[in-house]
Amino acid sequence: MTGTQTSRSLLPLAAAMTTVVLWASAFVGIRAVGHDLSPGALALGRMLVGALTLTAIVLVVRARRGGPRLPRGRLLGAVALWGAAWFGLYNLALNAAERHIDAGTTALLVNVAPVIVAVLAGLLLGEGFPARLLAGMAIAFTGVVLIATTTSAGGTDVSGVLLGLLAALVYAGAAVAQKRLLVRVDALTVTWIGAVAGTVALLPYLPSLLAELATAPVTAVAGTAYLGVFPTAIAFLTWGYALSRTTAGRLASATYAAPPIVVLLSWLLLGEVPALLALAGGALCLAGVAVATRPRAATPASVGSRIPAGR
User: Fold this and answer.
1) What whole-number distance in Å separates Cα of residue 228 and Cα of residue 208?
2) What global pTM score does this model have?
3) Which of 7, 111, 218, 250 has the fewest CB atoms within 10 Å, measured from its CB?
4) How many helices (DSSP H) and strands (DSSP E) are in the chain?
5) How far are the Cα atoms of 130, 139, 293 from residue 296, in angstroms, in the given order?
6) Does 240 reside within a domain?
7) Digit-coded pLDDT (tens) for 64-73
8) Mean pLDDT value across residues 107-114
9) Higher pLDDT pick, 248 / 290
10) CB 310 within 8 A of CB 280
């Protein structure tokens, strides 16, 4: 393999890791800003900044290369619906969840999404429900129950756990849908249209955003801007790039690295550390994800057929 081929093969990995780090920082940013802005106002403020940033990127790309070509008809509607779900509903659920539970615990809950991706693949793509998937689901569910029990015993509303799981469900469904959309539309166009659609879906929260920004501290405004530019515009572009070059399941498994990063950042920046039992529950969630998404054992013939020439 030449140096150019090696660098190209590493680009999707670098893009995925960029996304993971920026998304990890988003959990901490939401927790910090969420004290000053309500879930809907924060979601809209973040998406306004993100959509404007992506629009500027699209204008630059169009000026240099021409395009991108916009989808039409049902395909455009599908991209808009995807954006309203992931950029709209997901952000609302995540913001609301972090009003009840700390950033690290929320990240652990959201990262059961790869299990849900595997379930959706079994239901929608005919991949079935092998024993490893059922075992992983059982382990992850045990972890969720442990987290819910721990947060409830600590006086935290269990609704935070349910909202975190809702965010995971939307994330999983959106990742599967986006993989199909990227077959027909490039990553930049999908992300841009999706962000605009998500912003439009959140416009009912505009009065709340304007009222809360009038009294919010500068740090909250800066935090909202950060969330819009980096974890939204840049991270979703790098995610789309990586997703267009690998499978949804494999890329979703890369997010295993996010919860430890979130816990570390939350401890350093916010002084928050999840309860010991919640961490144990989160470890079970990640273990369940690892079991559920573990590749099936391949036969020697199939292994040989997957070895690239020249290696």
Assistant:
1) 18
2) 0.81
3) 218
4) 16, 0
5) 9, 18, 9
6) yes
7) 877 667 899 9
8) 79
9) 290
10) no
CA 89 to CA 23: how far, in whole Å?
16
The answer to whether position 125 is within a domain reads: yes
Domain that holds residue 266: 11-295
Whether 309 is covered by a domain: the verdict is no
A 10 A CB-CB count for 210 gives: 12
* DSSP classification of residue 295: P
* CA–CA dist 254, 5 (Å, integer): 22
User: What type of residue is 17?
Assistant: M
Number of domains in the chain: 1
Would you state the pLDDT for residue 294? 67
Assess whether pLDDT exceeds 90 at residue 53.
Answer: yes
Q: How far from 61 is each of 76, 107, 192, 285, CA to CA, in Å?
A: 20, 34, 12, 41
Q: What is the mean pLDDT of the chain?
A: 82
Q: Which of 264, 221, 279 is nearest to 25 (CA)?
A: 264
Q: Are 269 and 28 in contact (CB under 8 A)?
A: yes
